Amino acid sequence: MKKIILFVIASLLLIGCNAKEEKQDIKDKPITDLSIYNLPEKWTNQDGKDIELKELRGKVLVMVMIYTSCKSACPRLVADMRNIEAKIPEEYKDKVQLVLVSIDPTVDTPKRLKDFSIENKMTGNQWVFLRSNEENTREFAAVLAVNYKKISPIDFSHSNIISVFNAEGELAFQQEGLGVSYDKTVSKIIEEAAKIE
């Protein structure tokens, strides 16, 4: 009987250890074909640090494409992102990354992105602002189904889409519109964040 109990305890410990190893190794798993982490481009964040998208792997990503000199749609999208962030329960906040990608890399230098993040009270670790070159930005916009077009030297026409990606970088949900209810978006973020250990 003692041997059986010891065997059961050892088995449970082994299962527990293996489960922990699996959860810790999410970044070592192969990237799926549907993941944005297949995109090899380099991006620069608001702190001037060069990163690849796959460095964000393991968190739920909430992404929107904007440009900082925008006076019409972007301020509303920024407010929507702040409202979404405010609705994420505290227990999931460290499992979510809110990412704003510039469609105007010429104007949106790392310094400009940093200033914009400060102006808009988006300075916590959960906020990431990214820029790249025109080609990478176009390719990324196509993946997000975001259309944009320069209509003057300082103005763009663009889609207003907020996208949610799971921890593996696969598109989980998208919502289009300005100032609409983002309850479904928040529900999807929580659902995906709850899967992360």
Automatic annotation (TrEMBL):
<comment type="similarity">
    <text>Belongs to the SCO1/2 family.</text>
</comment>
<dbReference type="InterPro" id="IPR036249">
    <property type="entry name" value="Thioredoxin-like_sf"/>
</dbReference>
<protein>
    <submittedName>
        <fullName>SCO family protein</fullName>
    </submittedName>
</protein>
<dbReference type="Pfam" id="PF02630">
    <property type="entry name" value="SCO1-SenC"/>
</dbReference>
<dbReference type="InterPro" id="IPR003782">
    <property type="entry name" value="SCO1/SenC"/>
</dbReference>
